[in-house]
Amino acid sequence: MSTTKQLQRSLGLRLVIVVVIGNIIGSGVYKKVAPMADELHSSGWILLCWLLGGIITLFGALSNAEVAGLLADTGGEYSYYKKIYNRFFAFIFGWSLFTVIQTASISSLAYVFAQSLSSLIALPPLLPSLAEVNIGGIFYPFADFNVKCLAIVLILLLTWLNTRGIKTGANVSTGILILVFTGIFTIILFGISSSSAQLVQPFQISTTTGKAITMSSIFTAMLSAFWAYQGWAAIGYVGGEIKDANRMIPRGIAIGVLLIITIYLLVNATYLAVLSVPELEQIHRSGNQIAAVEAVRSFWGSKGAVFISGLILVTTLGCTNATILASCRTYFAMAREGLFFKPVAELNQVNTPANSLWYQGFWACLLVLSGSFDQLTDMIIFAVFIYYGATTLGVFILRKKMPDAHRPYRVWGYPVVPAIMIIFCALLVMNTFFNRPREAAIGLVLMLTGVPLYWWFTRQEVKKIEKTNA
């Protein structure tokens, strides 16, 4: 296909909000309360970390909304960083999305989908004799190979679906979100009204160990919360396909994030009302249980476990689809500027970057084989907060560079709100280095592989120009 074809602006505010929420609400709302319990040993502090994570996410979203309102275009932060910083930094961000942030998000979501399906339908074991084969004692590609193969099939199927056009993918997400919201509010309603619920339990600040909560524990626990909140910025990647993007993106981000914060506080308070902290700690240590499943099982029995497993299937399906839909647009934008593999710059017959979708899908499949769910999510959060901080810093830089530019939205609480976000991002990245050094190191190495590739891509562009001028 010719690279002169253009993306079509077809998304209004409703679908913008759907894409924002669809990229956020995934596996974290069901799984992450357990590792937070294992870290904090206090139900009150768990709920407080969910609230604090939501506030920090909202600060980042409001700061991002100002930048998006001013610079909205296909590629999201990739497009913003070229104007805020330089082409090299923009490329490293785009490469980080491809190697770590978005593709690992797709992988981990698909993995939870497959895990949930396997709890409903017994999957036959695949290559069990190779389960202990490993690379450096870190990667076990054949462990739970039946689950991983199912996750790979899901990624490839949804990738194909999204090659049919963005409105097709967005409308699929709309239908799925309706089911997800219905399911989650059903859990909240029946959970808090059940005989097993202890409504004061979520607000107990004391720890089960008797030890005081440390700042390091709070930051480490919030890695889990931030995975559940992760994804709101993905709407910027489809900026070139949104009607009146400079106004719609800020509004969609703010509405979507506020809805998610409310839902997360309600559903996690429900989990904490029906399950004690020691029970949640045991769920985490078991390695193969999901907190939401055990919470619903406590008041609905085995039928409830089937219900919640089905809801997790639908939710992770929707989030995987939304993440696949949005993420590939950045690589398309990079390829059009000669900073990614040339075929990725092409559109198919329905003006969709199909090659970008397939490149993304194949790498996500490889990441499925590389690690466990928690390993992937901690790696993502470490990487993504580097760029959340960079985007928020961009609010200050753009106010100085472009003081008179029209801003459809100005961040509330400037300069305090963006300053708090920047400081928090720096602290979280440093804390992850100390408390999750393996995940931080893997993420950093994958990001830095972009440095020699930037040189290679730019060298190819120079050769192309020289050949054209010869």
From TrEMBL:
GO terms for molecular function: L-amino acid transmembrane transporter activity. Gene3D superfamilies: Amino acid/polyamine transporter I. It holds the Pfam family AA_permease_2. The keyword Zinc does not apply. Its main location: membrane. The chain crosses the membrane at residues 12-30, 42-62, 88-113, 133-160, 172-192, 212-240, 252-274, 305-326, 357-373, 379-399, 411-434, 440-457. Keywords: Membrane, Transmembrane, Transmembrane helix. It is a multi-pass membrane protein. It is found in: Membrane. The keyword Membrane applies. GO terms for cellular component: membrane. This is Amino acid permease.
